[in-house]
Known about the structure:
Elements: E1 2-9, E2 14-19, E3 25-27, E4 46-51, E5 57-61
Antiparallel strand pairs: 1-2, 1-4, 2-3, 4-5
Amino acid sequence: MQGVVRSFDPIRAEGIVVSDQDRKEFILASDALEGSVFRNLRQGQRINFELDGDGNVTQIRIGSEADMGMPSVEI
Length: 75
């Protein structure tokens, strides 16, 4: 899914994300940034995310984070 960060408190690692698809609000899971190279989110930031079994935002990917690896080159 894709959405926008509505709010984020970096001290408590809590926040709200609004889905692009239906404008529904989702709460950030406490471990939402685990596995991400980012440790902070800003209001209005566009993100890609998954939902856990409780409907909370998890597995956040930001911008070109997925493309930060080495490019594959065929010789």
